[in-house]
Amino acid sequence: MKNTDDIKKDLLTGSHTIAVVGLSPDQAKASNIVANYLLENNFRIIPVNPGYPEILGRKCYPSVADIPEKVDIVDIFMRAEKVMPVVKEAIQIKPKAIWLQLGIVNNEAKELVEANNILFFMDQCIKQEHARLFKK
């Protein structure tokens, strides 16, 4: 069986499009910093935030369900108690993985995602993990 690092490496190597849910236009916010890092590392990001028509020069969608194309990873920047509706929506589009950022822990979401055979990470930063695994 593969270890978690190998699973993450395979996921990040084989993924191109990442929906960033809760992406903020504020450059000081973690979601913006992470999205910029992903862009710099050749990922395509799709902002998801109902409050804005576009962020980082890209069309912003009000919800995951509104994204009209295949998404490899759904990266969620929201408080733990608010993630379940987004996770349920994300499961419907069948990404390779659903990722809850640092500080976001929701075991109910974990059980639901894993029951749908989708990779799930929580309380981890996709930027930190990518940098750790690929920038050695």
Feature tags:
single chain; 136 residues; alpha/beta; two-stranded antiparallel ribbon; 37% helix; 18% strand
Report on this model:
The protein is α/β, with parallel strands linked by helices. Helices cover 37% and strands 18% of the residues. It has helices spanning 4-14, 30-40, 83-92, 107-115, 126-134, and strands at 17-21, 44-48, 54-55, 58-59, 73-76, 97-100, 119-121. It has a 5-stranded parallel beta sheet with strand order 2-1-5-6-7, with helices on both faces. α1 packs across α5 (126-134). The longest helix is centred in the N-terminal third of the chain and has 11 residues, at 4-14.
Task: Give the SSE map.
Layout: H1 4-14, E1 17-21, H2 30-40, E2 44-48, E3 54-55, E4 58-59, E5 73-76, H3 83-92, E6 97-100, H4 107-115, E7 119-121, H5 126-134
Parallel strand pairs: 1-2, 1-5, 5-6, 6-7
Antiparallel strand pairs: 3-4
Helix pairs in contact: 1-5, 3-4
